[in-house]
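Per your request, structure below.
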């Protein structure tokens, strides 16, 4: 074989070698999750296994469907405009874990794959968060800034309070994997880009739940606006204890969970 022939053969093979195989789809494992519809003054919670499939469920007081099951997954829609009333909550429609857990209690792996179908005209989006309760600030938030995806929150000890995680895909998709160790070391993978960070001791000890869905922030304006995402993958795996909250008394107990509240890929 001549040198020219060998060189052409190598060049022909380069495009194939340069492109990695597409990532396997994330499973949509809704067991252990619930639909949370947050309005300005109300919060509605429905266990995921009780959601009506094959039909649209309207937001209260609107003609818009807050969720809809389709061949790709579940589509979530919410009002986006920031409320002007004092103490009013930011509306959002999310899938949330139904039980709280602590990072210090064992390794945790979380996953979500979503497609942004409609962005808010103003402001940004929270793609996912770890939150302790309805009115407390989340310890971690995965947010958009244009096409960039950032991690923010008081729970970050290092490298800083804002970590660049990656970018939204050309298909408007975000494939998110989060892994937490009891010692506070953590890893995030967004569309194949890996970032590492550390958590504060307070964040490790705080009971939290993983939430993701249609959630706009800082959408300041006078005209109505909406945000829509389609969840195509979702999962949570906890190797430690998950706090079970009694709906009647509000009391919490710890349950050892080897399989986790919901199944999902390990990162």
């Amino acid at each position: 074989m001549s040198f020219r022939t060998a060189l052409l053969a190598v060049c022909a093979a380069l495009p194939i070698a340069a492109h990695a195989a597409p990532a396997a789809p994330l499973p949509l494992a809704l067991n252990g999750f619930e639909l949370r519809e947050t309005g300005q003054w109300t919060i509605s919670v429905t266990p995921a296994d009780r959601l009506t499939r094959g039909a649209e469920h309207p937001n209260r007081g609107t003609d818009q469907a807050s969720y809809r099951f389709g061949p790709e997954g579940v589509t979530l829609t919410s009002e986006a405009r920031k409320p002007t009333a004092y103490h009013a909550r930011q509306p959002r429609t999310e899938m949330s874990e139904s039980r709280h857990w602590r990072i210090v209690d064992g390794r945790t792996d979380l996953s979500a794959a979503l497609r942004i179908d409609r962005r808010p005209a103003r402001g940004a989006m929270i793609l996912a968060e770890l939150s302790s309760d309805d009115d407390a600030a989340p310890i971690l938030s995965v947010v958009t800034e244009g096409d960039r995806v950032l991690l923010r929150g008081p729970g970050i000890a290092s490298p800083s309070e804002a970590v660049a995680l990656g970018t939204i895909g050309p298909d408007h998709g975000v494939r998110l994997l989060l892994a937490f160790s009891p010692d506070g070391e953590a890893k995030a993978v967004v569309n194949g880009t890996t970032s590492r960070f550390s958590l504060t001791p307070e964040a490790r000890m705080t009971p939290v739940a993983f939430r993701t869905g249609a959630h706009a922030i800082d959408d300041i304006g006078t005209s109505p606006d909406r945000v829509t995402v389609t969840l195509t993958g979702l999962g949570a795996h906890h190797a430690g204890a998950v706090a079970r909250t009694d709906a009647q008394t509000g009391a919490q107990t710890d349950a050892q969970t080897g399989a986790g509240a919901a199944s999902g890929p390990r990162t």
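The mean pLDDT is 82.

Regards,
D.
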